[in-house]
């Protein structure tokens, strides 16, 4: 069984994927009124309990590595490492933006797409994709842009998806008009199930990353470091 953790934004969830069938068997959302550092492990334990499993039954763990909340990313990475290190099981780090692209693919939506996560300051973390039936292609490296800068990405009409799309909907429509199409509401939240499916593809490809290889994808340094480190 593979466990997936998505706590890189305020929309947090955990999921289990059966590595024999490749199917996501269960997903639970974390309580929204408490910090993920308090609720992540209890929610995962509850999910495992529902399936009559324990952490020792896990063969791999996947975690969303950002971009998103600095605190949430750290909580997810440290939890994944804690689950993987004792047994030496693989630890898959998956981009939160890739997870949003997978939301669209799994939902049967195809075409050019922008995955958007709120980056504050009127900006978004932006991923640019071509969504296909069985997979998606990354068209550009992720960046931080205001809605007025999204047009530098677009090749044609594109789907927009993610919590950043919802927060900045008015500005996006004003900047891009008919060039963008908003995905259905159900596809906007980051999903542990999508993180699990992408990790499983890496497993099928023979990749077995160690927990020590997990790295956050920040794009922008934590606020405490911003005076000394350039944004990237």
Q: Kindly report the spatial arrangement of strands forming the biggest sheet.
A: 3-2-1-4-5
Q: What oligomeric state best describes the polypeptide chains here?
A: single chain
What's the rounded overall pLDDT mean? Answer: 93
Rg, Cα atoms, Å: 17 Å
Percent range of helical residues: 25-40%
- End-to-end separation: 35 Å
The profile of the biggest β sheet is: 5 strands, mixed
Series of H and E elements: EEEHEHEHEEEEHHEH
Notable characteristics:
alpha/beta, 6 helices, globular, Nucleotidyltransferase, domain 5, 232 residues, 29% helix, single chain
Descriptive report:
The chain is α/β, with parallel strands linked by helices and 232 residues long. The protein folds into two domains: 2-96 and 190-225, 2-Layer Sandwich (Nucleotidyltransferase, domain 5), CATH 3.30.420; 98-187, 2-Layer Sandwich (Nucleotidyltransferase, domain 5). Helix content is 29%, strand content 27%. It is built from six helices and ten strands. Helix 1 crosses helix 2 (70-84). It is globular and about 50 Å long.
Outline the secondary-structure elements.
Elements: E1 2-6, E2 13-18, E3 23-29, H1 36-50, E4 60-64, H2 70-84, E5 91-94, H3 96-106, E6 111-120, E7 123-131, E8 136-145, E9 158-161, H4 163-167, H5 169-176, E10 180-182, H6 192-204
Parallel strand pairs: 1-4, 4-5, 6-9, 9-10
Antiparallel strand pairs: 1-2, 2-3, 6-7, 7-8
Helix pairs in contact: 1-2, 3-6
